[in-house]
Amino acid sequence: MTYDLLKLAHIIGAVLIGGELIGVWLTDLRSRQSRELVRFSESVRYIAVFYDGVAVPGAIILLVSRTWLIAEFFGGWNFVSTPWLAG
């Protein structure tokens, strides 16, 4: 049960980051097409909202679920001494 919930959280984090990338891309396209300063500043504000409201929570969810999955199911906290992690 724990594995399934952590895997779900990991997938949700990845979906949030993917959605953020698409949202920022579309908003950036919109900002490049606008010729008015008000619309441009609104698009830039939306880009900041995507980063702060979607990317950061997605990245935190990915970090926590990944660390918990590794610690719980793949040998405990010994993964911290793995060379690929330190290098």
In words, what does this structure look like?
This protein has helices at residues 2-33, 37-73, 83-86. The chain has 87 residues and is an all-alpha fold. It has one domain. The longest helix has 37 residues, at 37-73. The two termini are 33 Å apart.
Query: How would you classify the helix and strand content by structural class?
Result: mainly alpha
Termini Cα gap? 33 Å
Q: Helix fraction?
A: over 70%
Count the E strands: 0
Order of helices and strands: HHH
The total count of helices amounts to: 3
Key features?
87 residues, mainly alpha, 3 helices, 84% helix, elongated
Describe the secondary-structure layout.
Layout: H1 2-33, H2 37-73, H3 83-86
Concise account of the structure shown:
With 87 residues, the chain is mostly helical. It is built from 3 helices and no strands.
